[in-house]
């Protein structure tokens, strides 16, 4: 008999805070500045990272205080996922909300937190600091994920 893992056995609402946090693959894409096309609503990611994002580990350097430091930092919660349409297609929260499995490179599957970086799915080494880019130049830094 196969063992069911908690991220498949439970709904997102049933996860403990620790289980919820462990769904994050650590890609860092949430921490990139995004631009929205005013005409059609399309959202574009830029390579411009929040100044609290560690560019190598893709971890927030002040995670517990992030909302006080960056008031528009979005805190993902099970009830808010439907309203957040800019999450990347590879996001575990988005995948699980749709009933889809996690990718093989996800740390919960691979058992290795660095697998997201080795797979090329994180922003590690691909971003610039927001203090180095004028906000009016963000569109010059739009990135398209393959």
UniProtKB/TrEMBL annotation:
Matches recorded under PANTHER family: UPF0260 PROTEIN YCGN (PTHR37421)
NCBIfam families the record matches: PRK05170.1-5, PRK05170.2-5
Family membership: Belongs to the UPF0260 family.
Protein name: UPF0260 protein C4F51_13100
Native source organism of the sequence: Cellvibrio polysaccharolyticus
